[in-house]
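Researcher: Re-running this chain for the archive, since the previous output was lost when a drive failed. Same request as before.
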Amino acid sequence: MRIQPRDLLGAAIAGIRLYRLRSSLTIASFAAGTAAAVALLAITGGARQELLDRIQRLGANLVSIHAIGEAGREAPPALTISDAIAIEQSLSFARDIAPVRVVPASVLLPDEQITVQVVGTTPDYFALRGLSFTRGRAFSATENDEGRAVCVAGDGTARRLAPEGVVYGSLVKVGQRWCRVIGILAPEAATTGEDADRRLYVPISTTLRRDLSSRQALGEILLRIADGVDPERAAQVVKRTLLRRHDGIEHFSIETAQALLRQQRSARGLLDALLAAVALLALCLGGVALGSQAWQSVSLRRGEIAIRRAIGARRKEILAQFLLEGIMLAAAGAALGVGLGVAGSGFASTLGNWPWLLPTRSLAATLAAILVLGVAATLYPAYRAATLDPVAALRHER
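Model: Regenerated structure tokens:
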């Protein structure tokens, strides 16, 4: 007489409930491994997506030039205002250009004095970085050229400047000068990875000494390449231009969005392999526990197996029952682990302000691997149960 699927499921559930403590420990082991795998996938997936979003926001035709190190008193700066002017005037493919100069400054409030990162730049910077505004606007080219006393605050800076009020339109003292806040950046501006949320932006001309304006140092130059021009080739032309201006000394680095994307793709294969290894090691704990559970279950239920075989149960039905027990334990642990992993990594991401994204394909592959591991861990014990000699088993029970 063939056993019905419903009866087979009931027998598997009864077998799991027979040793509740061991079954609970096995489920907990799988849950811990699954939670660790889900947390790793979610946090690293969010980091990868943040980089891709940043590249998309910056655009494929953006070139970023960064100064490396700090020049000594006698050495010339790695990047200067005159470098930015030369690039803009001598390279025909250069469109928008934004020199960036970070200056140490404090901001004076009516009741206290706080320190924020003050950045001198041009109006093109906000468009090049894809920054948006919740209130107000960026300073204009005229305001920048004339060095007017205006500034733009990041969302985080605005909250620090006016915790209980609105800083937009008010005056703040930046260094030795009073500036009017004419714009507030949107909170999502921080996703560019440049800490725009915590900065205060002023016209770059207000940060320069008039007698040394062309030779003063920059931290970065942003440049948008004309459409139809290969950014990689343009970056090489920019590099040769700067090397000629600095006597062959390369105290700068040049990055393009395409280069960042290639680096991300090349690193992704290695990162995914490392994540798979970590997740597999975490899940092996559950696999070992499940294999031990299945082996002990078969050893302790020899009499039950012998009786079932004696009354007509076929070998493949015994095999299916024990395999089903293993799959159910692995599935229960996986379901619990997914919930714990999602909740835990989401909570940690919120507290630490980390990006979070759980790739659907990676999650599906992890769950499939768990089910395969469940089958693999119980396959041999189930086979031993199915091939058990009923007479020898009953004699052993005596």
